[in-house]
Amino acid sequence: MKAASFDYVKPATLVETLRALARSDGQAKLMAGSQSLGPMLNLRLARPAQVVDVSRLDELRTVELIEGRVRVGASVTHAEIEDGCFELLRGHPVQEMAARIAYRSVRNRGTVGGSLAHADPAADWILAARALNALVEVRAFEQAPRLIKMQDFMLAAYTTSLAEGEVITALHLPRLSAQARWGYYKFCRKTGEFAEASCAVYFEPASATAQIVVGALDSAPVALETLASEVARGGLAVASEAAIEAALKGAIEQLDTLGRRMAGAAIARCLAQAFGVHA
Ligand SMILES: Cc1cc2nc3c(=O)[nH]c(=O)nc-3n(C[C@H](O)[C@H](O)[C@H](O)COP(=O)(O)OP(=O)(O)OC[C@H]3O[C@@H](n4cnc5c(N)ncnc54)[C@H](O)[C@@H]3O)c2cc1C
Fold it and tell me: The pTM is what?
């Protein structure tokens, strides 16, 4: 099937982009890398009157340090982060995470903002950003930017709290201290496929952060807060198989036995990574 016809515009500035969305009366759709939107257009699951291309918008393609956080422009691609094109992200946990999204042709075009907005429950940015307590920066026409906490951003599968006419302009990530512990693990049937079970963990003594977050669910990622606090206090020994199983049972009803086993193994491997334990 081919896409239904639509107007295509490629604004030169963010203000023009926001104006185009505001004028479209909800009939326009942003396009970044088109890795998810393209198939949706072709299958006619999306039938916008206008497509507004932000893939090369300079204002959305910078990475800078703002108020101690790394502000990553929404149209930065996974491949640019993988390749270390931005000094601030070299050695940051998201560099390795980005390198394992899909395969190279998808990473060459897929963007941070597109991935967040699409809100696939198995997506890597959705999980990593949640574990890192990242903030999503959004803008609407003639309005000041607003920052949304990741836990408030994704409401359900493919559903976010973005309002009509809002554009994701950036993702704000923490810089990790030397004491920070990070782990990321996903089960995929083969390279390039979305995860079937995934987990990200982040412990940052400097900000008393303790996060164990499970992804690839039917919903937004789920944080296992109690287990994370216990591990932050008691170390890896606290996270026995039984403790992980109990935490999963208590927090995530949707998992069947196999799903719980896979999520449990992802958590255990993630924690082992974070605490430098190699099997
Ligand atoms: C074969 C394949 C395998 C994949 N495997 C994985 C995987 O393993 N892990 C993973 O995480 N991802 C995976 N992806 C998804 C991919 O990584 C892209 O990130 C994702 O498709 C969306 O990014 P995009 O830039 O292409 O956005 P687009 O497809 O252009 O847009 C997606 C949605 O976001 C909206 N949008 C785009 N930019 C903005 C913005 N700045 N503000 C607001 N809304 C915006 C669009 O309107 C659209 O609704 C895979 C994709 C494919 C095709």
Answer: 0.96
